[in-house]
Design a protein that fits this description.
The complex is a heterotetramer, with 2 copies of chain A (about 80 residues) and 2 copies of chain B (about 140 residues). By secondary structure, chain A is α+β, with helices and mostly antiparallel strands. Chain A has 3 helices and 5 strands; from the N terminus they run E-H-E-H-H-E-E-E. In chain B, helix 2 runs antiparallel to helix 3. Classes of the chains: A alpha+beta (about 80), B alpha+beta (about 140).
């Protein structure tokens, strides 16, 4: 399965890129994070603070246990600060 | 019934011209870039193109159902916004005042913590610092 | 920091131009003449010259103290106001959004039940009916 | 003591005039109402529903027991309906 991964705010800075495409068999967001963390030091840094991690699956807010089997796009970012 | 994301400034007067026709009560909220330290130059706001407008629309529809809003509008800017400039606005219309007030208040709480925007403070010396989410904003959401 | 009573229409855009400079949050409320029955032509509003503006100023100062408002404005019309026209507006400015929302909400509750205005509905056939005070408005005041 | 008495909204309509000047020794709003009620049928009608009566002494909201000994202006009106 091919997935677009997006990063925003300081997660984007730590990973060093705003998006990438990965091939994965991960079933949930949590599984995907485990794979991504191993990809680089930047990725490891981005995912080092799980309490400050938010995510969206196909542009809907999701949590770590959300399934991604049919997903096309997963985004990671810190807590939102709009308004 | 509009949710818009844009870099350009907006004009509150133009936004509410004709807004909420037939309603008895109209409430607007406008957020402005504040400089508490005297050292700030601007905010720089990042968002999630594709997701943002749809998320805003979802929150507005929820608020409209819950409070009986007859009209709503959100405009949120992104990119670099200098101190003193408006960041965003919410407008709600309803038959009665409490619905309009509650709808706008509720939307602001959702928008603060659930809409995909991230703020960075740009100091006059160019230093950029990501704004931390406030636990009080998360608490505010739990009121509803 | 202005409280004004007038017969002329007001322009919300002009009223909030420069309002609340330095604040982070600005809330406005606008009340509009609603026609629920399809039979109404206008409201006719009587007030107590001399007392009205001072009462409005007193309520605004109380709200400013209580919620930390950095600016406030009330404009209330009297005389004949046709359906669809704005009756009055309140604007509040504060550092943070909850203070601005609460200040405006509080002022509206005071204004509804404690400012010396009396409304009469003028039907299209010319019949005039005094509007009864609502017990819900009195209840709303007791929230604070 | 000479007092200006003001009437608003349907109290004004029932009394039949927006203001009058009276000479009175009434100590409180309640005493004053007792005197005014006797003045005419219109006055009696205006003051017939005490639950719907509101008043101001010298342009400050007051109640039936408020003293008026030093007052210059007393206003009577129904519950307010601003906003």
């Amino acid at each position: 399965m091919t997935l677009d991964i997006l990063y925003f705010a300081w997660l984007r800075e730590r990973v060093g890129q705003p998006r990438e495409t990965v091939t994965t068999d991960a079933a949930t967001v949590r599984d995907l994070i485990a794979e991504l963390t191993a990809a680089s030091e930047g990725h490891a840094a981005a995912f080092s603070d799980m309490a400050s991690l938010r995510c969206a699956v196909d542009q809907q807010l999701a949590d770590l246990d959300s399934p991604i089997t049919d997903a096309r796009e997963v985004a990671f970012f810190p807590p939102m600060t709009g308004g | 019934m509009t949710a818009r994301v844009q870099t350009a400034p907006f004009d509150l007067a133009a936004e509410i011209d004709g807004f909420g026709a037939g309603a008895g009560a109209i409430v607007t909220f406008t957020g402005v870039v504040r400089d508490d330290t005297g050292l700030m130059a601007a905010l720089d706001i990042e968002h999630y193109p594709g997701m943002t407008e749809r998320a805003l629309q979802d929150y507005c529809r929820q608020a409209a159902d819950r409070f009986g809003l007859t009209d709503w509008r959100i405009v949120h800017r992104h990119g670099r916004i200098p101190v003193g400039d408006t960041i965003m606005m919410v407008a709600t219309a309803a038959r009665h005042r409490h619905a309009a007030f509650q709808g706008a208040d509720y939307l602001m709480d959702w928008l603060k913590s659930r809409a995909p925007f991230w703020k960075r403070e740009i100091a006059q010396d160019g230093t950029a610092t990501w704004v931390d989410a406030k636990s009080t904003d998360e608490d505010a959401l739990n009121r509803w």
